[in-house]
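Changelog excerpt: complex records now keep ligands as SMILES alongside chain sequences, and the structure block spans every component. Example after the change:
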Amino acid sequence: MGEVTIMKKRKKFAEEPNFTEKKSYRPEGVKETGLAFIGHEISEDGNVMNQFLHYDQLYTIRHGENSKFFKGLLEGKILGTRCPKCGDIWVPVRTHCWNLNCNLEKTEWLEMPLTAKVHTWTIAGWSGRSSLKRLPIVLVYAVIGNSNVAIANELHDIEPWNVEFGMPLKIVFKPEEERIGAVTDFHFKPADGWEPSPWNKEKERIQKLVEPVYEWVKTLK
Amino acid sequence: MTKKVCVIGGATTPFDYGPTGFESIEGGAAECIRETREDIPDFSMRDIDLMIYSHFSVHFGHQLCSEWIIHDHLGLVGVPQYRIENGGNTGGSALYAAALAVMSGHHDVVGVCGWETMDSVSQSQGSEFIALASDIRYELLVGGIYPIYYAAMANKWMKDNKVTEADVATIGAKNRNNAMDNAKAQWYRNEHKYITVDDVMNSRLISYPIKKYDCCLMSRGVAFLLICSEEYAKKVNPDGYVTIDGIGLSSCTIRAGDRLNFPGWTERYGKNYPGMTEFGACRSSADQAYKMAGIENPLKDIDFGEIHDAFSTSEAQIYKALYLADENNIAQFLRDESTHMHGQIPMNPGGGLMGYGHPVGATGLMSAIECFYQLSDLIPKKHLSKKTEVPDAECGIVNSHAGTGTSISNFIMRRS
Ligand SMILES: [Zn+2]
């Protein structure tokens, strides 16, 4: 009878990364409570009942092959990727080429210049709860360097009505200690030397639309 | 040889934010089917041989596989079922799946049931849940809500096509005013008023150039639609059945900014299409549906539509994607009120997402149901008057749309 070898330890199929740099910036008072029924209400006629369920949960976003981009943000860099076959470049990054002829070619990383150009723009007068106090917010889709795609982010240091299609931008990072490795670590500003175009009808209309937003924000606590 | 696909009935609960009178999803589904049976009493629950469920976000109900609750409540144990999820195009995608099931000959009578319960969380939490369908790594944190992405796309589209804020505002007013003839519509049940273009123009800024009355509603609601073979249709609803003559489904990028030079589009439609302004997946799915249904001149061959007006701007963008107008005449097309009830091709006589409501999983089905009503002469019975009936309609289009145009389906329906 031949000998049977039983492996005592399960073979690992991928090396476990050793996470040595750990940071937490969770706001005070945020906890995972899991699932809990926390109340109910019943209508006066006794016919209808509502119940209140509370649930929250911590998620881990494992960036894996995309990690370089988000780690780059912590370092004040915008990293893009490029297909070695067809030469297309992307920010937001793609780890495999989008061109069907390239058959999911693995892409290579490159550092992008901190300059961009507005592709299109909008002025938010309403947003998610966490952003309300910062309204109105100018949001642009801009092309960074010679990327083949546009990326969304905020444009600061400009009167909302002065944004223009095609205007040149620079990328500005938050101070290093405030960065969290998310796209909010950077924003756009008008490129040095850029001047807004003269006053016109559309600017007047935009001003009329955003004035109540400024007033409304003042009423927020 | 594929089989002909027919629609023989369908109904929705009232759409609302807050109580509809049918708050439990399984109760709502049952009531939709009871209403369908009132229209076609010869249809029996025993005839259903496949159920397809249409539901977008389990976040709203905090119940995974909520279709299982509905399915056994309907008494359908043993009958095959599965659920489709495809963002705002969930309803359209479920209809697509049902059509394929019948076309193949493998199923004869397919029920499609959709719902969403968006009022189970606060409005701002609801907006955030929906925005989780944007790329959370790149877009959620900087835009946060869909109207902002749509506004950025619309702003450039309007400039490129010389369309003004007032031009698209006509759509926001039109759909809400149509909904005033529809007692199940959320606008009818809540704000309940006729509005003008000025009202839209003066409503609060959401994201330039989109204002409050350019935006659709967040809703609770359930819808049910019955799809079948022509043999079964002739048995149960011989005088009123409608045929689905063309179907199309297509896809685009999750992030709108990735559309500038996508090889998959440039090889189909040439350089710079769709860019961030056009809905490539709408054009591509319309191309498929038109070809299948033999539509050569959409503006002439189609009498009306029920389309995905998430925003008044996107309804206008959809007109162009469907070839109803091009960059030279889209502005005039809007100024001529071509899609109002008195226009050449009325759009959203049922009120659309802005008037009827947008409980995501039920929405595309609602559009298909309204299209069916028009083509089977049920509007006087289902609406409050004949004001929103498209007289002698022979052919309608149904459109369902997801993400920032990320998944889109189109259907051509004809009177039998
Ligand atoms: Zn390539």
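Strands of chain A lie at 34-42, 49-56, 79-82, 89-90, 108-111, 115-124, 137-144, 151-154, 168-173, 186-190. The radius of gyration of chain A is 25 Å.
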